[in-house]
């Protein structure tokens, strides 16, 4: 990727381990991805500072995978996975808004 950093409009999520060729890819709005992961990984009873810190980490991790082209540079056709050993959880349920 070249040019100025930006927040992408979309992110393609692989719904499985990176090498699981039977897993589906879904393309979702980046903001909806962050909401979905946040609602899957965080507890509303946590202090606001902990929620903010974790959301910043989720955003930073996703942007890192996009900007470095982590998966595409390895021959994959997605930006990130929902495989928790290597990524955050993304559910294919209705988006939390």
Features:
three-stranded mixed beta sheet; single chain; 97 residues; 2 helices; alpha+beta
Briefly summarize what is shown:
With 97 residues, the protein is α+β, with helices and mostly antiparallel strands. 33% of the residues lie in helices and 12% in strands.
Describe the 3D structure.
The protein is α+β, with helices and mostly antiparallel strands and 97 residues long. The protein has two helices and three strands; from the N terminus they run E-E-H-H-E. A three-stranded mixed sheet has the order 2-1-3. The termini are far apart. The mean pLDDT is 88.
The major β-sheet equals: 3 strands, mixed
Radius of gyration, CA atoms, in whole angstroms: 13 Å
Q: Looking at the structure, what is the overall shape?
A: globular
Name the helix and strand elements from N-terminus to C-terminus, one letter apiece.
EEHHE
Q: Which secondary-structure class do the elements indicate?
A: alpha+beta
Stretches where pLDDT is under 50 for at least 5 consecutive residues are: none
Question: Alpha-carbon distance between the termini?
Answer: 30 Å
User: Fraction of residues in helices?
Assistant: 25-40%
β-sheet strand percentage = 5-15%
Give a topology summary.
Layout: E1 10-14, E2 25-29, H1 30-41, H2 48-67, E3 80-81
Parallel strand pairs: 1-3
Antiparallel strand pairs: 1-2
């Amino acid at each position: 990727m070249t040019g100025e950093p930006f927040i992408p409009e979309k992110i393609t999520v692989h719904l499985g381990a990176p090498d699981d060729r039977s897993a589906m890819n879904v393309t979702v709005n980046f903001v909806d991805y962050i909401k979905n992961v946040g609602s899957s990984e965080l507890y509303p009873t946590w202090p606001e500072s902990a929620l903010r810190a974790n959301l910043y980490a989720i955003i930073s991790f996703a942007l890192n995978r996009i900007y470095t082209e982590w998966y595409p540079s390895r021959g994959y056709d997605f930006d990130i996975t929902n495989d928790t050993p290597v990524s955050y959880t993304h559910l294919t349920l209705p988006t939390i808004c």
